[in-house]
Amino acid sequence: MIDPDVLARATEEVRQATGDPVIATMFQQSMTQNLTAVAERLADGTTFVLTGDIPAMWLRDSAAQLRPYLVLCADDPGLQDVLIGVLHRQLEYVALDPYANAFNREANGAGHTTDLTEMSPWVWERKYEIDSLCFPLDLAYKLWKLTGRDDVIDERFRTAAIATLDLWTVELDHEARSPYRFERHGEPVTDTLVREGRGRWTQPTGMTWSAFRPSDDATEHGFNVPGNMFASVVLGYVEVIATEVLGDPALGARAKELRVGIDEGISQHGTVDHPTYGRVFAYEVDGAGERLLMDDANMPSLLSAPLSGYAAVDDPTYLATRKLLLSPDNPYYYSGTHASGIGSPHTPPNYIWHIALAVQGLTATSAEERAQILDTLRDTTGGTGQMHEGFHVDDPNQYTREWFSWANAMFCELALAHAGRRL
């Protein structure tokens, strides 16, 4: 699905930048196999993308899995067709149910059918996560900018953008306005919402509410700050596309108004004056004074704010937050004999994530730190040559998810960035 000559040139750039044939080989193998193993071109011209080891398409994962291919797609029209096909399928899914996070290839009723929520045969899982709506809008903007093709943005984008803005507007006041409910019985508490599916009580902040985190775990305080950061950025993209492509100034104005309110909410409620680190971003807040200082391994995270486009890598609040996140003051930061990094409540204690390590490298300000993290990724595959979800800091042979397509993609993106090729 990627032109062999394009990949060969990129692989040689990675080899020269790293001076490491093992990293270059891992990069070439992942780029060759990762998309081919998960992407299926359908008769309608769209592309269905498995999340990896689960037979469903996550809106978030299917976009994140494409990031290294976006870096190279300008020189590969065939690859562009595949990526645009992914986008168009995502947009169709959003129109079907903007509260859903994962979908079936067809309306076959597979997935979590016993969840107490408004399921459809198209939906594999209906955990509402703000980032699930951010990623398709982000992908649309990047493809439009990178390719310059007229077929990237069509009426599917307008429909999905309106559905997204409608939902985010409703969820500004979840308590009073939201129709969304979700319960799952007989599973860990992180897989369900309290209060008969409504989630923990929140008070309006200007940010938009999310039931679940990018990890698919329930939010603790409702307003996920990194998710709102990403929402702010993609609302800016909607404003640009509405104005320059769709000729829809009303949609652009709606996006701008919502973005301004979210930004004010982040500033007023999503930041904390920390006695050690100074002004930092919180991970979640409830609007009534409760704030959670931590980070999770999945994107969007606080650590990934520069990748989302919300903060510069040298922004003072981001740098202060980064120091907190990469320290024991983040309860999910772990150190051991083989590695140190950010894990997740989604996996066992002392397991750190390859995704989080890659994000740390991609947001680093020095080539030395990027190179060090690439070496760590190379050395913690447990002998498989593949990235995993989480691995034990003292024994990389203990890991979760032997094959995790998103993590492989993040490794490839970091290798490309180290070679001077990045989004």
From TrEMBL:
Gene3D superfamilies, sorted: 1.50.10.10
SUPFAM superfamilies: Six-hairpin glycosidases (SSF48208)
Coiled-coil portions: none
Pfam families, per database record: Glyco_hydro_125
Example of a GO biological process term: carbohydrate metabolic process
PANTHER family from the UniProt entry: MEIOTICALLY UP-REGULATED GENE 157 PROTEIN
Name of the protein in question: Meiotically up-regulated gene 157 (Mug157) protein
Biological source species: Kribbella italica
